[in-house]
Specification:
Blueprint (H helix, E strand, L loop, with lengths): L3 H22 L2 H9 L5 H13 L3 H27 L6 H12 L4 H13 L5 H6 L5 H5 L6 H9 L2 H17 L4 H10 L1 H19 L1
Helix pairs in contact: 1-4, 1-5, 1-6, 4-5, 5-10, 9-12, 10-11
Length: 209
């Protein structure tokens, strides 16, 4: 499949399907209801779910837009990194690389669902929100961390590492060089941008919690 747009459509559909299956298997609405019951009245909770049901279809649009924004931003970052290293590639080619690599993260919600289904059947909404498979957070536990430290520990995971390695491989391939050159580009563009994003999330979490 050579068309990036076709990959984008398929990836969007897969993300939507997986999100729906995860929501149903883990009974996320029930978990949300239990969580909200500590803060709101029954009537307020019912109004929330009525609103959610009414606009549920927008969730699909949101997932697609977020995927487009994420892959486009990453493609732009890589494009700039390649341009500064005297590599003149079309943006469409770089976006294609970003989409290819994004398929790795499809495994995250699948493994997450299987974990709570078979290994941790007694869970709540906070457990589901903070769990990230094969991450540093699972080693230290979110209960022992300040809230603003949770996200960076989630980002330190094997999926992100695989993402970086596969990005490097694809860049090496498309530039007719090697994975070492690709890793150089990723190290000079994507990784600093990721670190900046993590720092930004930490800053806002610290100030608004």
């Amino acid at each position: 499949m050579k068309s990036p747009f076709a990959k984008y459509i398929i990836l969007s559909i897969l993300l939507i399907i997986i999100a729906e299956i995860t929501s149903r298997i883990l009974h996320l609405n029930s978990l949300i209801r239990d969580y909200l019951s500590d803060f709101f009245t029954l009537q307020q909770i019912e109004k929330y779910f009525e609103f959610q049901d009414k606009w549920h279809s927008l969730t699909y649009f949101y997932i697609s837009i977020m995927l487009l924004l994420k892959t486009s931003i990453i493609a732009t970052i890589l494009y700039v990194g390649l341009f500064l290293n005297s590599r003149d590639l079309k943006f469409k080619q770089i976006w294609n690389i970003a989409l290819n690599t994004e398929f790795i993260f499809l495994l995250v919600p699948i493994i997450k669902t299987l974990w709570f289904l078979f290994f941790q059947p007694d869970y709540n909404l906070i457990d589901v929100q903070n769990f990230y498979p094969l991450s540093a957070l699972n080693i230290v536990g979110y209960k022992n961390l300040e809230t603003w430290f949770i996200y960076p520990f989630q980002v330190l995971n094997l999926f992100e590492l695989s993402y970086i390695i596969y990005l490097a491989y694809q860049i090496g391939k498309i530039t007719n060089t090697n994975a070492d050159y690709g890793l150089k580009i990723v190290g000079l563009s994507y990784i600093p941008s990721l670190a900046l994003w993590v720092a930004t999330v930490m800053f806002f979490t610290l100030n608004y919690t």
